[in-house]
UniProtKB/TrEMBL annotation:
Residues 280-299 are annotated as: Disordered. Keywords: 4Fe-4S, Electron transport, Iron, Iron-sulfur, Membrane, Metal-binding, Transmembrane, Transmembrane helix, Transport. This is Cytochrome c oxidase accessory protein CcoG. It comes from Rhodopirellula halodulae. Residues 280-290 have a biased composition (Basic and acidic residues). SUPFAM superfamilies: 4Fe-4S ferredoxins.
Length: 505
């Protein structure tokens, strides 16, 4: 029963723990004894998706086709198209996104990164993390309700299929009686086809569309691992969308658990307004001019007519009137359902609305909060670092490493040699041959293995070289700073600074 994050002004009779304590006349007893009795004597539903006997409570949320649902539907279908299109899009001949784990290459926005790009990858991960924290602090769980693939595909692809094959009462809810086995099989067939398509699309992000098309055209025996990955992904998707469903958000997704530390009282959430709605009571309202309050059968009545429409539409099975809960994915279905009811009973819309815990408690809005100041500052810093790290990448990487063994070798009386390895990474999409030249007239570059000067696209090598120079160059300090220029056929250039070592006077 620890799922509730906070309860903004909720009537105690609607909290399940207190409800049980009230019911048993133990409201004045210690919290611990009251809570344990309540846990031992659960209500009809222990959790939103668990019956009192421990069995799964299958949810079949009714659909409310209000304004928010229409907006979410547009966003959802745009996102579906984007998800399918991304692996097919190219920037400068390279995929927009390709996470080739096998080849250890990550192409993002047409730029290829390698595991050696630790700084870029670390900054990228950090920017994603800080963005999530910032967006959640401002907009609550907007990601869950509007953009998470689980919600998008479940609510706008698979549930419509359920409603098509199983039929519904009205706009949603329980299926019509007597769905024929043939229709059920047809429904499973459509699920299978869609999950296979989505699994192929998902796989394209990791192997690219060309290789995927080639695999699709050939027998699975020729590429058994890829086939197994695709079959496993299809199976997982089927398991998720057919069976696991909202459990993924409630049990498996870590984001829902973290939200309590990412939200504050000013964060946007989908919230019920208990000040306006309570006391909730069914029945026709009579307005009492003296008190200015509505009454039902002589009792004071809030705007909530206790119709439960906000509950029957909820895809996670909760009652938003219980306050902010971890299970709420901010899908806005309860807003639409309640607005519909409010229209019918002639009350202002927005009894359930996008708001914040402070706004619901009638506390002033604070635009500047620690989170909305500190997180953007961190984010600007991380993005600047990321932009600099990316822009500093030319068509290749070159790093110089001192060779093992003696710091220098005397070649006769007047010449010195230093051994180095140059780590070269070809970041272009074409084969490149590299050229190395010293910017110091007296230093000669000797390539030990000329074959290693040519690199296929995306490949890296360790090129052994020697820098030879006259011994007087280092006589003062025993070392001298020189510069080495590395260039490729595409006119990309890099200048490396090196300290050569030699004898001193
Ligand atoms: S409480 Fe409302 S917003 Fe939250 S998941 Fe349920 S229907 Fe969606
Ligand atoms: S839909 Fe609105 S009026 Fe009906 S129970 Fe929910 S909050 Fe109350």
């Amino acid at each position: 029963m620890s799922r509730r994050i906070s309860l903004p002004q909720v009537s105690p009779t609607h909290c399940k723990v207190c409800y049980a304590a009230d019911r048993d006349g133990n409201a004045g007893e210690s919290a611990s004894s009251g809570a344990s009795e309540a846990l031992l004597e659960p209500e009809e539903h222990v959790l939103s998706t668990l019956e009192a006997d421990g069995s799964r409570r299958w949810l079949r949320p009714k659909l409310s086709m209000g304004e928010w649902w229409k907006r979410r539907r547009v966003v959802a279908y745009v996102l579906m198209v984007v998800f399918v299109a991304i692996p097919h899009l190219r920037v400068n001949g390279k995929p927009l996104i390709l996470l080739d784990i096998a080849a250890r290459e990550f192409t993002i926005l047409g730029k290829t990164f390698y595991p050696t790009d630790t700084l870029v990858l670390a900054l990228f991960m950090l920017s994603v993390f800080v963005s999530i924290v910032l967006i959640t602090a401002i907009t609550g769980r907007a990601w869950c309700g509007w953009a998470c693939p689980q919600t998008v595909y479940m609510e706008f692809l698979f549930r419509p299929i359920d409603r098509f094959f199983e039929g519904t009462k009205g706009k949603g809810g329980k299926p019509a009686q007597g769905v024929s086995p043939l229709w059920q099989i047809a429904r499973l067939g459509v699920y299978l086809l869609l999950c296979m398509f989505l699994a192929h699309t998902f796989l394209a992000y990791f192997v690219g569309t060309e290789r995927l098309a080639q695999w699709v055209r050939t027998s699975p025996i020729e590429h058994p691992s890829a086939f197994l990955v695709m079959a496993g992904t299809t199976g997982l998707m089927l398991f998720d969308f057919l069976f696991f469903r909202e459990q993924l958000c409630l049990i498996a997704c870590p984001y829902g658990r973290f939200q309590s530390v990412m939200l504050d009282e000013q964060s946007k959430i989908v919230a019920y307004d208990p000040v306006r709605g309570e006391p909730r009571i069914k029945g026709k309202r009579t307005h009492d001019d003296q008190s200015g309050q509505d009454t039902v059968r002589g009792k004071p009545a809030g705007d909530c007519v206790d119709c439960h429409q906000c509950v029957v539409v909820c895809p996670t099975g909760i009652d938003i009137r219980d306050g902010l809960q971890m299970e709420c994915i901010n899908c806005t279905q309860c807003i639409d359902a309640c607005d519909d009811v409010m229209k019918k009973v002639g009350k202002p819309l927005g009894l359930i609305r996008y708001s914040s815990q402070d706004a619901i408690a009638r506390k002033p809005k604070k635009l500047l909060r620690a989170r909305t100041i500190i997180y953007p500052i961190i984010l600007v810093g991380v993005f600047s670092g990321l932009a600099m790290a990316i822009s500093s990448k030319s068509g290749f990487d070159a790093r110089i490493l001192r060779g093992r063994g003696a710091p220098f070798t005397l070649m006769g009386a007047k010449e010195v040699s230093n051994a180095f390895n140059v780590r070269l990474v070809n970041r272009t999409g074409e084969e490149q041959t590299y050229h190395l030249a010293s910017l110091h007239d007296e230093v000669e570059v000797e390539i030990i293995d000329e074959d290693k000067l040519t690199l296929p696209p995306g490949e890296s090598t360790l090129l052994p070289i020697r820098l030879n120079f006259p011994s007087y160059l280092t006589l003062n300090d025993g070392n001298e700073s020189i510069e080495l220029q590395v260039s490729d056929q595409s006119d990309n250039e890099r200048t490396l600074s090196i300290k050569v070592l030699g004898p001193r006077r």
